[in-house]
Design a protein that fits this description.
alpha/beta; Rossmann fold
Length: 323
C-alpha cells in the first residue's frame, strides 16, 4: 500500500501574464466558501508597490474585501523589494493564514519569486548603489543586450536563463560578479529551501498562443482606458523616481514613461502602447518557457476554465489535502 500524500501547507498558482490567474483564484475562493476560507498571497514583483495599481492589475477594493490578500502595497515605488524579502514575507503569511485555519493560495506571475520559494535563495552579496549606477550608465550608452553579451562571457549558465531585454536580472548578475568575483550561477547552486513547507503547484499554460496574445492586447487597452497613462504621469511627478527605479521596470510603465519623456502625439502614444503590448507578449513567452522547463507544475489550459465545472475540480481536490 502506498503512503498517503502529505498534507499541503499552501496551493501555488502561476501562469503567464493575462492567462486568468487572478480570476481563477477568486473563483476558487468563492467555490470553497463558506466552509473553507481562502486567503490570497500575491506573487507579483510590481503589486508590492503603492501607486502602481492599474498597470499591475491590482485587485480592487471590493475583491480584497471579499477575499483577504497579502503582500500588496508593501513598499513605496522609490524603495526596493527583493526575492529574499518575498520569501520571508510569504512564509510568514502562509504560517499566519494556516494558524487561523485558512487556506493560503499563492498567485502570480513573478517566477523568480516562485523559484526562490521552492528552491531557496543564495546568500548573495548585498546590492551596491555605486556598482548599479555604473551598470546603468553603461547600459544607457551600449544597451542592455550588449551587457547581456558580457554576462554570457563570464557566466554563460546565467546568461542562458536571462533574456537580453531583462535589465533587472542582467544588472544583478553582473553586479554579483563585480562584487564577489564569482558568477551568480555558482552562488545559486548552493541554495535549498529551509522552510519545510509542502506545496501543491498548478500552472495555467495556454495552448492557444494567438488567443493569449489577443487577451494581452485587450487587457492593456482596458488599462489605458482606466487611466494608466495618468497613473504613470503621477509617478513621474515624484522627484525620487526615475526610469531606472526597480518599480518602474514593470512592463507598461517603462514604455509609457519613455513616451512621456519625449515629444507627445496620438501616433507616438499608439507606438508606445504597441511596444508595451509586445513587451508583454515577450514576458509571457519567458514565463511559459520557465514553466515548461519545470515538471513539478501541474498544468491546466485556461480554456478548461470555460468547462461546466470551471476547471476548478482538480484544484478543489488539491485543497482537500489541507489540514
Amino acid at each position: 500500500m502506498s503512503a498517503a500524500a502529505p498534507a499541503i501547507d499552501a496551493l501555488l498558482l502561476c501562469g503567464p501574464t493575462a492567462s486568468g490567474k487572478s480570476g481563477l483564484a477568486l473563483a476558487l475562493a468563492d467555490a470553497l466558501a463558506p466552509g473553507q476560507r481562502v486567503e490570497i498571497v500575491s506573487v507579483d514583483s510590481a503589486q508590492v508597490y503603492r501607486g502602481l495599481d492599474i498597470g499591475t492589475a491590482k485587485p480592487s477594493a471590493a475583491e480584497r474585501a471579499a477575499v483577504p490578500h497579502h503582500l500588496i502595497d508593501l513598499r513605496d515605488p522609490e524603495q526596493t523589494y527583493s526575492a529574499g524579502e518575498f520569501v520571508a514575507d510569504a512564509i510568514d503569511a502562509i504560517r499566519d493564514i494556516r494558524s487561523r485555519g485558512g487556506l493560503p493560495l499563492l498567485v502570480g506571475g513573478t517566477l523568480l519569486y516562485f523559484n526562490a520559494l521552492l528552491r531557496g535563495i543564495a546568500a548573495l552579496p548585498r546590492a551596491d548603489a555605486g556598482v548599479r549606477a555604473g551598470l546603468d550608465a553603461r547600459a544607457e550608452a551600449l544597451g542592455w543586450p550588449a551587457l547581456h553579451e558580457e554576462l554570457a562571457k563570464i557566466d554563460p549558465a546565467a546568461a542562458s536563463r536571462i533574456h537580453p531585454n531583462d535589465p533587472q536580472r542582467i544588472q544583478r548578475a553582473l553586479e554579483v560578479y563585480l562584487l564577489s568575483g564569482r558568477p551568480i550561477s555558482e552562488w545559486q547552486q548552493d541554495t535549498r529551501p529551509a522552510h519545510g513547507l509542502v506545496f501543491e503547484r498548478w500552472a495555467l499554460v495556454p495552448t492557444d498562443r494567438a488567443a493569449l496574445h489577443a487577451r494581452i492586447a485587450e487587457r492593456f487597452a482596458v488599462m489605458m482606458q482606466a487611466g494608466l497613462l495618468e497613473e504613470v504621469r503621477a509617478l513621474r511627478s515624484r522627484p525620487a523616481l526615475s526610469a531606472a527605479s526597480p518599480s518602474l521596470r514593470a512592463v507598461g510603465y517603462r514604455q509609457l514613461w519613455q513616451y512621456l519623456d519625449g515629444p507627445q502625439s496620438p501616433e507616438l502614444l499608439a507606438a508606445a502602447v504597441e511596444r508595451a503590448v509586445a513587451a508583454s507578449r515577450q514576458l509571457a513567452k519567458r514565463q511559459l518557457t520557465w514553466i515548461n522547463g519545470d515538471p513539478g507544475w501541474n498544468r491546466l489550459d485556461p480554456t478548461a476554465l470555460q468547462s461546466p465545472d470551471g476547471g476548478l475540480s482538480a484544484l478543489l481536490a488539491g485543497c482537500r489535502r489541507f489540514v
